[in-house]
Design brief:
This is Crp/Fnr family transcriptional regulator. The protein has 190 residues and is of the alpha+beta class. The protein has a domain of 116 residues: Jelly Rolls (Sandwich). Helices cover 46% and strands 22% of the residues. The strands form two sheets. Strands 1-8-3-6 form a four-stranded antiparallel beta sheet. Strands 2-7-4-5 form a four-stranded antiparallel beta sheet. α6 packs across α7 and α7 crosses α8. It is globular, with a radius of gyration of 17 Å. It starts with a helix and ends with a helix.
């Protein structure tokens, strides 16, 4: 069954009947994103949540000095969206790019709202996702203010264990808030 991964992800939080699974999966739009292709760019309005079934996405912003700041990664079995833009339907600030050829299942905001009416337990599911996202963002902010670079790297390793040896060091450095050169020196000391 092509939707097994996403249904297993949802089953961590809610139980769906076969009919509810059918309603949900009928609303999903599969999409393949080529390496370095964007799912969303800064200034776009986010109209979908993306669930990664193969590959990896990264969400990042670019500051006025053209420096990239990686906010998050979405490997297989993770969801990603520009939450501010998706909820407000205003232009977002996040770029979402495929780090390799990536397959996603897209759920439009419209279909998500329809899903809430047809299968109300999805409100609970998406509330849990948003709460987890908020907690992770708050913890990341606190970590950035109070932890050393090594501690931030250790937290990265715990959060994204499947990405430690697959991501370019430059992107890990950006995520933990250090230069690639500092990151290389830090890793060589370990």
């Amino acid at each position: 069954m092509p939707h097994t991964l996403i249904l297993n992800n949802i089953a961590k939080h809610i139980h769906l009947t076969p009919d509810e699974q059918a309603v949900f999966t009928a609303m999903l739009q599969p999409r393949t994103i080529k390496r370095k292709q964007f799912l969303l760019t800064d200034g776009d309005i986010c109209k979908h949540s993306a669930f990664v079934t193969q590959g990896c996405l990264r969400g990042y912003t670019v500051d006025k000095n053209a420096i990239e700041h990686v906010l998050s990664f979405a490997p297989v079995d993770w969801w990603m969206a520009d939450m501010y833009s998706l909820i407000s339907q205003k232009p977002g600030i996040l770029n979402i790019e495929a780090l390799e050829e990536t397959q996603v299942l897209l759920l439009s905001k419209h279909n998500q709202e329809t899903l809430y009416k047809q299968v109300p337990k999805f409100e609970h599911f998406f509330r849990v996702l948003i709460e987890n996202s908020l907690v992770a963002s708050q913890q990341r902010l606190i970590d950035g203010l109070s932890l050393t670079a090594e501690d931030r790297y250790n937290n990265f390793c715990k959060r994204y264990p499947t990405l430690i040896n697959t991501l370019p060091h430059k992107q890990i450095a950006s995520y933990i808030g250090v230069t690639p050169e500092f990151f290389s020196r830090m890793r060589s000391r370990k």
